[in-house]
Design a protein that fits this description.
2 domains, 4-stranded mixed β-sheet, 20 helices, Cytochrome p450, alpha+beta, 13 strands, Cyt_P450_E_grp-I, iron ion binding, 494 residues, single chain
Length: 494
């Protein structure tokens, strides 16, 4: 018998064992649980009623008296209760870490980067990032890069499209992803992507990053982790594809590190240089993980937020009009392509509109922790040790118990008090997480999004095309609109 035959028999036996184990688990769960939530999951009824899994979760959480449900087949407690979110992210923070199961899911992609670790490794990276992002010099440096990318790249591109006058359509999501990638390369690495000596076009690396994100996230939907671990061991199916894309991503990360070392980093403002200056023995694997974490946060989250914003704005012309009035009042038609940092601070309605957009479409739709020891959430839900607990910002934005009966409406005014932007508790609005893990790049991301939005809205009308299809999201670590965001860009009508 050849080695191939032995491998095939082993694989067949392993798959059969896994499927048999899943069947036993399924039958046991059906016997031990008769709740409506479990029945809904087992019957997969969400696929017939909802276009996105997150909408199904939002529906179930709205139906729950406590705003919390338990998906027995997945062993996952899901909550949209602000008191529970505060308990997990602040009150009992140490009992709800990311956990080893989560780190295993994303370990091949994120490694030991800040989004995938706990304990001392997380504290060190957070301290370094906090010192960098809290620096006035770094914020000024970042704003200069964002303004430059808008003035020299984004606005000329949109102008060329608007001036065609032939009904040309552009994929705004793709435009924002390219813009965010260029911007994060300069802010985080101090590099223009044109200086990177890569063996293939950047678009192929971007596609590899998207695929790796999608396949890594898919691991978390498996009812039995043994399945994806076995596929990885045998190097077959989706795990083989994930391995291939991560090899490509590593080539990009290695080139970024090489270029940064070539240029030197002793006096640079970029974030990577600050981390590299603190690492002993030139640990390239550790630095690689930091590069990937920066790319994930800086490209995907910002592009997702911008795409969702213009999707909503295209449906609410009254909001676009109110924004233009505020922008004109602050800038007083000074003719500048990009507003100043100080002018941005005066635009409270624009700020409110951004928050309102991310309330409905958060870039990260849900986030999971793992309970170390048996615990009881504030709403009375018991959580057993070593189980997954998920808080769901996407569903929370659609809870009338939190936002009132108009929770499904895009209404920026809900964030204003006397015309001044007034934030809500982060535990009620955990779009940037909250507590000790609150997003350190929050202000940087908001500045970038706000600068782009003000620059585009003041100069163009954006009409997102309906396309005759429901809005769907691609499975991944951040919310990406399936099929892109086709839109027409034209000059505002006077």
């Amino acid at each position: 018998m050849t080695k191939n035959h032995v491998a095939f028999l082993f694989f067949s036996f392993a798959v059969g064992f896994v499927l048999f184990s899943m069947l036993l688990l399924f039958l046991r769960k059906r016997r031990c649980c008769s709740c409506d939530v479990c029945k809904a999951y087992v019957s997969s009824s969400w696929a017939a009623e909802f276009d996105n899994l997150c909408d199904w979760y939002a529906h179930l959480l709205r139906e729950s008296p406590t705003g919390t449900i338990h998906i027995h087949v997945l062993g996952n407690t899901v909550t949209a209760n602000p008191a529970n979110v505060e308990y997990m992210l602040r009150t009992r923070f140490d009992n709800f870490p990311k956990g080893k199961p989560f780190s295993a899911l994303l370990g091949d992609l994120l490694g030991q980067g800040i989004f995938n670790v706990d304990g001392d490794a997380w504290r060190f990276q957070r301290k370094m990032a906090s010192l960098a992002l809290g620096s006035v010099a770094v914020r000024s440096y970042a704003f200069g890069i964002v303004a430059g990318e808008i003035g020299r790249g984004l606005l000329p591109l949109l102008s060329s499209i608007a001036d065609r006058g032939d009904g040309a359509v552009v994929d705004l999501q793709d435009v924002f992803r390219r813009f965010a990638f260029d911007t994060i390369c300069k802010i985080s690495f101090g590099l223009d992507r044109g200086c990177l000596e890569l063996p293939m076009p950047m678009s192929e690396f971007a596609a590899a990053f998207d695929t790796a994100s999608r396949l890594s996230a898919r691991r978390g939907t498996a009812t039995a982790p043994l399945i994806w671990k076995l596929k990885r061991l045998l190097n077959v199916g989706s795990e083989r594809e994930l391995k291939r894309t991560i090899r490509m991503i590593n080539v990009l990360a290695e080139e970024v590190i090489r270029q940064r070392r070539k240029l030197g980093f002793a006096s640079s403002h970029d974030l990577l240089s600050r981390f590299m200056g603190s690492v002993v023995d030139d640990d390239d694997k550790y630095i690689r993980d930091i590069v990937i974490s920066f790319l994930l946060a800086g490209r995907d989250a910002v592009a997702s937020g911008l795409s969702s914003f213009f999707l909503l704005l295209s449906r609410h012309h009254n909001v676009a009009k109110a924004m233009r009035e505020e922008i004109a009042g602050v800038t007083k038609a000074d003719g500048a392509d990009v507003v100043s940092y100080e002018q941005l601070k005066e635009m409270h309605y624009v700020h409110a509109a951004i928050y309102e957009s991310m309330r409905l479409f958060p870039p990260v739709q849900f986030d999971s922790k793992f309970c170390l020891e048996d615990d009881v959430l504030p709403d009375g839900t018991f959580v057993s040790r070593n189980t997954r607990v998920t808080y769901h910002p996407y569903a929370m934005g659609r809870m009338d118990s939190i936002w009132g009966p108009d929770c499904d409406e895009f209404r920026p005014g809900r964030w204003l008090r006397g015309g001044v932007f007034t934030p809500e508790s982060l535990f009620k609005y955990p779009v940037f997480q909250a507590g000790q893990r609150v997003c350190l790049g929050k202000e940087l991301a908001l500045m970038e999004m706000k600068t782009v939005i003000v620059s585009v809205v003041s100069k163009f009308d954006v009409e997102v095309l309906p396309g005759g299809r429901p809005l769907k999201f691609v499975p991944g670590l951040t919310a990406t609109i399936n099929g892109g965001l086709p839109a027409r860009v034209c000059r505002p009508k006077i």
